[in-house]
Amino acid sequence: MQQLVTSDFKLGIIAGGQLGKMLALAASNWDVKTYVLDNDPQCPASSCTTGYVKGSLNSYDDVYNFGKSVDMITFEIESVNVDALIRLKQEGVKIYPDPEALRIIQDKGLQKQFFATHDIPTSDFNLYESKESILAAIEKGTIAFPFVQKLRTGGYDGRGVVVVKSANDLTKLLEGPSVIEDLVDIEREVSVIAARNLSGQVNCFPLVEMEFNETANLVELLICPSTVSDAIAQKAEEIAIKLIDAFGLCGLLAVEMFIDKQGNVWVNEVAPRPHNSGHHTIESMVTSQYEQLLRAIFNFPLGSTRQKLPAVMINLLGEPGHEGPVKYEGLPESLAIDGVKVHLYGKTKTMPYRKMGHVTIIAPTIEQAKENAEKVKQLLKVKSWKSQ
Ligand code: ADP
Q1: Amino acid 385: pLDDT
Q2: Choice from 77, 161, 191 to test ligand 1 binding pocket (greatest atom count within 8 A of CB)
Q3: Can you tell me which atom of ligand 1 is nearest the CA of 150?
Q4: pLDDT score of 301 more than 70
Q5: Which of 268, 381, 387, 358 is nearest to 22 (CA)?
Q6: C-alpha angle 381/385/387, rounded to 5°?
Q7: Would you call 212 helix, strand, or coil by DSSP?
Q8: Which of 154, 261, 268, 378 is most buried, with most CB under 10 Å away?
């Protein structure tokens, strides 16, 4: 990959959200030209890529034509037309991670079957075609309360997932082919991002712990290092490595896991791309997840995943009750705090709970980072000019 540096090498990034933006910024450090495919000309990545291509991620023709115009493709979202990617691969376009892995991961049912086949601990599950078949199975006693329903495709950020604790919750059931799985008695939610380059070299970023906003069902606070025991962290890392090897995946695999009250580790789901739980790596690790992805797909040696400083990451979510052109309140006050690193994604319009940015707070100790993160949470608000 010597031709990379100061060359015309064109890396195509499918989707131009915040992950695409941060990937493009990392690529520009190596003078890699980036082209992004997205339907929205004002998508976050469009301001910092070499080229923007308008098109739908789910359109065969748009993805195919985009693939023909670049030297290599990667993606920052799962929802991409895989048939087009597979055709491009057959025609010699380099696509990392492999579209066959993406096809499995796009479907939560196939993902769970993949975990089961590869002996990866995951909560027991069955697949159902429709809401009616779920109701019939409850009637027959095949499904017992409590359980979790997940739509096999199309869900994201907690949408498409319902927890059914009793018959009273049955009105929440969603329509469509679903995974029905056992409810895990969750003590903590954690994630490990593994990386694997083309030659098969593998490593992982240290485990991160997530705290959720119950109302929005979005990660609110991310902590690294976490307080889980070394034994559990090691187990989680082993699982992440086993999974990225099992997929034979070149790139990043973010593995979301639950730790139950007994200390067992269960895989919830995986994402073959940079991940929200890896934002902090930009400031807190020797190598960021974005640089690591580039190293992996260009088959460079993977970078060190040693942590430089403890970090807490908070998502900047649109305030409830605010919809319209965005304004940020409390920015100077937040930036006055030591170790506060603000990332604004450049989305022009805010909506309740929309991910508008994130802040990484680094400090000499995790306690200090948490304390400062609390201050930032109080100070920094995403509002709209229009909804006073
Ligand atoms: P998404 O892909 O939309 O992010 P997830 O599969 O991560 O959806 O589920 C969203 C949240 O629902 C999880 O973070 C967790 O809090 C809860 N959840 C999902 N599956 C289970 C389960 N089997 N047991 C308990 N809680 C679960």
Answers
A1: 86
A2: 161
A3: 6
A4: yes
A5: 358
A6: 85
A7: strand
A8: 268
Q: Distance, CA 349 to ligand 1 centroid (Å)?
A: 27
For residue 211 the two structure tokens come to 């705290």
Helical pair 99-106 and 108-117, crossing angle rounded to 10 deg: 110
Rounded Cα distance between 290 and 287, Å, is 8
Is a pLDDT exceeding 70 seen at residue 339? yes
| Closest C-alpha to 275, from 93, 43, 41, 23 | 23
Best mutation site among 106, 152, 268, 269 for ligand 1 pocket (most ligand atoms within 8 Å of CB): 268
Average pLDDT, the chain: 95
d(CA 67, CA 91): 10
124-182: what CATH class? alpha beta
Q: Which residues are near ligand 1 (CB < 6 Å)?
A: 123, 148, 150, 155-161, 181, 183-184, 186, 189, 212, 256, 268-269
163: tokens are: 């927890």
CATH topology for 10-95 is: Rossmann fold (3.40.50)
Q: Do domains 10-95 and 186-384 have the same CATH topology?
A: no
- Ligand 1: atom nearest CA of 269 is 6
Which residue type sits at 91? E
CATH 3.40.50.300 fits 186-384, yes or no: no
Q: What one-letter code names the amino acid at 282?
A: I
The ranges assigned to domains in the chain are: 10-95, 124-182, 186-384
Residues contacting residue 140 through CB under 8 Å, at least 6 positions apart: none
Ligand 1 atom 22, closest CA = 183
Cα distance between residue 318 and residue 353, in whole Å:
5
**Which of 127, 263, 119 shows the shortest CA–CA distance to 184?**
263
Q: What is the pLDDT of residue 72?
A: 97
Burial zone of 132 (CB within 10 Å; 0-12 exposed, 13-18 middle, 19+ buried): exposed
The pLDDT assigned to 158 comes to 74
